[in-house]
Amino acid sequence: MNNKVCATAKVPQFNFPDLKNQRVIVTGATSGIGRACAIAFGEAGARVAVDHTADSKDDAAVVVSEIEAAGGTALAVLCDVSDENQVERMFAKVVAEWDSIDILLANAGLQQDAALVDMTLDQWNTVISVNLTGQFLCARAAAREFLQRGIDPAISQAAGKIICMSSVHEIIPWAGHVNYAASKGGIDMLSKSMAQELAPHHIRVNSICPGAIRTPINTAAWKTSEAYEELMKLVPYNRIGEPSDIARAALWLASDQSDYVTGISLFVDGGMTLFPGFASGG
Ligand code: BGC
């Protein structure tokens, strides 16, 4: 199959589940997967808090106006998720504005790649702080709000939904990225342990594990046709993922359509985790 054709293939249209009146915080909402999810949540009728860092204020304003232009409601919130005080302030601000929250999409994440022997403690700490500690801090704040409020049947069958953005590197080891892979492996047990603890309170916790998605974080993996061809050796479905592939999964996990689903890692990866090398070897 011609990879160039696949590179521009359109992903199917989607009927958004109804998230009317629900209030969602999307962390890292100014680019890539977070941005696509924030906009999709807005289209599904949710009120969207668009989390951004100090240097992505303008991008957040663009996401907010895109949601508003489509008839939705959005609010930009400044928060570095690795900072406990800033996380507390973000939740307080959204609750003050909209009374409560119903969904957390803990998406903020970054890569700082280096060979193990060259990796600095700062690179290690930065990635673990944002990708893993940031998810803990946001999930804890969300769970506290869900627990004190309980179920509002007019909104959802659950008292709240937490969606953790993980990665195929939750289970695929990744040389040259030990900090990132460790953070995603940590999210696996963080989200499943939270799911076990919170299920009796009707709070659902699930993870999404994206494979290679066309976003700024991995431009080098798809920008040139040579890189794209190499990447496709790892993707049996033979196309790169689009941010909308992930947004559709996030909407489903946030909606009552998945009401009996908790504690899963939903791999959205075109088969990247199917050990593609074994299709012709082993
Ligand atoms: C990483 C990308 C990478 C993909 C598949 C993601 O979690 O952020 O850089 O392309 O995994 O390896």
Distinctive features:
alpha/beta; binds beta-D-glucopyranose; about 280 residues; seven-stranded parallel β-sheet; disordered N terminus; about 40% helix
Sum this structure up briefly:
This protein has helices at 3-7, 32-43, 57-69, 84-98, 121-149, 178-198, 225-232, 243-254, and strands spanning 23-26, 47-52, 73-78, 103-106, 160-165, 203-210, 265-268. It has 282 residues and is α/β, with parallel strands linked by helices. Strand 4, helix 5 and strand 5 form a beta-alpha-beta unit.
Strand order of the main beta sheet, please?
3-2-1-4-5-6-7
Q: What ranges have pLDDT less than 50 throughout 5 or more consecutive residues?
A: 1-6
The chain-level structural class is alpha/beta
Whole-angstrom Rg: 18 Å
The helical percent reads: 40-55%
User: What is the straight-line distance between the termini?
Assistant: 24 Å
Measured by DSSP, the beta-strand proportion falls in 5-15%
Largest sheet geometry = 7 strands, parallel
Number of strands: 7
How many alpha or pi helices? 8
Bound molecules: beta-D-glucopyranose
Mean pLDDT over the full residue set: 95
Overall, the morphology is: globular
Element order, helices and strands?
HEHEHEHEHEHEHHE
